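Sanity check

After download, print the first record. It should look like this:
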Amino acid sequence: MVLYNVTIVLEPSIKTEWETWMKTVHIPDVMATGFFLEYKMSRVIDQNNPDDSTYAIQYLCKSMEALEDYQKNYSPKLQAEHTRKYNGKFGAFRTLLKVLSKG
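Expected structure tokens:
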């Protein structure tokens, strides 16, 4: 299994609207592709900056091949929708992790 992690840093002014949009539109659209088994949406805890607007969304994918299919055929459109809606108000980077065990 592969964990597809998307870390996003937001302008604080869009935090509430963005969270709602992610939960009601974007994440359901990603999950509807059928490539992911589950997801988790988290906010990064920064004790030095309690109003921090950094998030991690993690999607669990059954295989690297399935993730590559998603990235080739679905991800560009979904990322473009996110960029169109919040252009200039966020930064993002993606990380792939190989799942060694799951409880």
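If your output differs, re-run the checksum step. Summary of this record's structure: Strands lie at 2-10, 36-43, 54-61, 90-98.
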